[in-house]
Input
Amino acid sequence: MDWESGEGLLSLDDPAEWDAALERGESRLGTAAIGLALNCSLEEVSPRIVRVLNLPDQGEREYAFTAAGTAARLNGRLTPELFAALRAEGPGGLAEDAISDTLTFVPYRDLPSWFRRRWVYVTVRDRLQYW
Output
């Protein structure tokens, strides 16, 4: 992995390598989190995505939200920590696409109550716009 240029980070499949990069203070942790979301289990990648979401760098946080949306798409579920992070950011901000992915790919019955209310709101809004 080339942490300097970011080359190869989307194929990252070793959470321990991500942890070592965090300890070294590498940049592009958000990009690497997307790679982990593509190649690792949700349980392995979720705490790492949450760590990136707590970084001050907005660019890295954007990639972390992309990783959360990718995790929702691939797994059809999210961890309670990721649901909480998406809710904390809220719609209309950096998490908008990740929230949309969650509402699209996670079954309604598996959504926490805030996300269920959001699903109803989005569904009604979209239907009214269609009409």
The CA atoms of residues 46 and 82 lie 7 Å apart. The first helix runs from residue 15 to 24. The mean pLDDT is 93. DSSP finds seven helices and no strands in the chain.
